Automatic annotation (TrEMBL):
<feature type="region of interest" description="Disordered">
    <location>
        <begin position="76"/>
        <end position="99"/>
    </location>
</feature>
<dbReference type="InterPro" id="IPR002514">
    <property type="entry name" value="Transposase_8"/>
</dbReference>
<dbReference type="InterPro" id="IPR010921">
    <property type="entry name" value="Trp_repressor/repl_initiator"/>
</dbReference>
<dbReference type="Pfam" id="PF01527">
    <property type="entry name" value="HTH_Tnp_1"/>
</dbReference>
<protein>
    <recommendedName>
        <fullName>Transposase</fullName>
    </recommendedName>
</protein>
Length: 132
């Protein structure tokens, strides 16, 4: 009598926490010519509806890559500046008009005040971060 192997198929894992980088990598695989979303989703063990949800989030600006940290050159100078006077602060110009702003209060009590200079993509990213 021979002993065989048994493979247990449990289906897709539920409630896995995918990193933003993983989501974007899977979405990039889906963009290749001739690739079907269902095949990519099955290869990674996720439902294709979840991949479509990530695609919508990326299109709406809610799923974006984290900025890459960069090194900044720094030079340390050994200078004694105790005798130098401090520069005069530049006067702030008077406001020409009152800037338009909206205030958003989330259900948990967090208030967010946004000026008109904030773009839609940035606002969506902030709201997504506050929602958790």
């Amino acid at each position: 009598m021979s002993i065989g192997t048994v493979e247990i198929i449990t289906g897709r894992e539920r409630r896995r926490r995918w990193s933003v980088a993983d989501k974007l990598r899977i979405l990039a695989e889906c963009e290749a010519p001739g690739v079907q979303v269902a095949e990519v989703a099955a290869r990674h063990g996720v439902y294709r509806s979840l991949v479509f949800q990530w695609r919508r989030q990326a299109r709406d600006g809610l799923l974006v890559a984290e900025p890459t940290p960069e090194f900044v050159p720094v030079r340390v100078a050994d200078v004694d500046r105790r005798d130098e006077p401090l520069p005069e602060p530049e006067p702030t110009p008077p406001p020409s008009r009152k800037a338009a702003a909206i205030e958003i209060e989330l259900p948990d009590g967090i208030r967010l005040r946004v000026g008109e200079e904030v773009g839609l993509v940035a606002l969506r990213r902030v709201l997504a971060a506050l929602r958790g």
